[in-house]
Write a structure and sequence with these properties.
2 domains, HEPN_RiboL-PSP, mainly alpha, RiboL-PSP-HEPN domain-containing protein
Length: 224
């Protein structure tokens, strides 16, 4: 894909499509779960909850990979980008430099400063790593890399950790059951969080929050 092909509209379509098919599949399954407690209800909750987690993890990984590609294809200069994206662009070259002496550390600093006017080359493969266990700490690290952290994600820490824990209980064969109301709350909150992330990506792309803020060039008042 050429750089000018990954426009905001293309990114938005990709992220919306990714969210929509996942929500549709999960809703179809949820609607099959009996609202009255019985063995079928318990079995379907145990079957659907790991899939709910899988769609959450998958959406995080795929949608943020699209966003990273969107930023990468802009090919901005390093001095136009937020620090996280500069670090991604330069990490391979910096990692090749030894850091065990003041001389080598000085070389790293010189390299960073000398690269400020150069075009970025942000890698996109294997950057969004959910570690197949997307607890809050892992998500927080990913959001930091993408400069997408905010208080709403922080407020959902318990939900995110509970969701991965419930998935693990089932995956490890433990006979731990949650009731229908608790599952419904998990379901609704997870779908809402996926939608929030979708909107966050779209807004960040549209507002170009990946760029370093322009310096304040307003005139300063001076005393006569």
């Amino acid at each position: 894909m050429s750089r000018n092909q990954l426009s905001f509209d293309v990114l938005s379509d990709k992220v919306i499509g990714e969210f929509s098919w996942r929500r549709k599949e999960l809703t179809l399954l949820k609607n099959k779960i009996p609202s009255v407690k019985n063995p079928l209800q318990s079995a379907m909750i145990r079957a659907t909850l790991p899939l709910l987690y899988a769609h959450w993890e998958g959406f995080v990984k795929v949608s943020l990979s699209y966003y990273l590609e969107f930023v990468s294809y802009k090919a901005l200069k390093h001095n136009e980008l937020k620090t996280q994206f500069i670090a991604l662009s330069l990490q391979k070259k910096i990692g090749a430099l030894k850091e065990n002496s003041i001389q080598s550390k000085t070389q790293i600093i010189d390299f960073i400063f000398s690269s400020s006017e150069k075009q970025s080359n942000i890698p996109t493969k294997n950057i969004i790593n959910t570690k197949s266990n997307l607890g809050y700490d892992v998500l927080d690290e990913i959001l930091f890399i993408m400069d997408l952290k905010d208080v709403h994600f922080e407020s959902q820490e318990t939900l995110i950790n509970d969701l991965v824990n419930e998935r693990n209980y089932i995956a490890h064969g433990e006979h731990k059951l949650i009731d229908y109301d608790t599952f419904t709350e998990f379901f609704n909150d997870t779908i809402s969080l996926m939608e929030y992330l979708k909107t966050k990506i779209e807004n960040s792309a549209l507002l170009e929050t990946y760029k370093k803020p322009a310096p304040n060039t307003g005139n300063r008042c001076t005393s006569p």
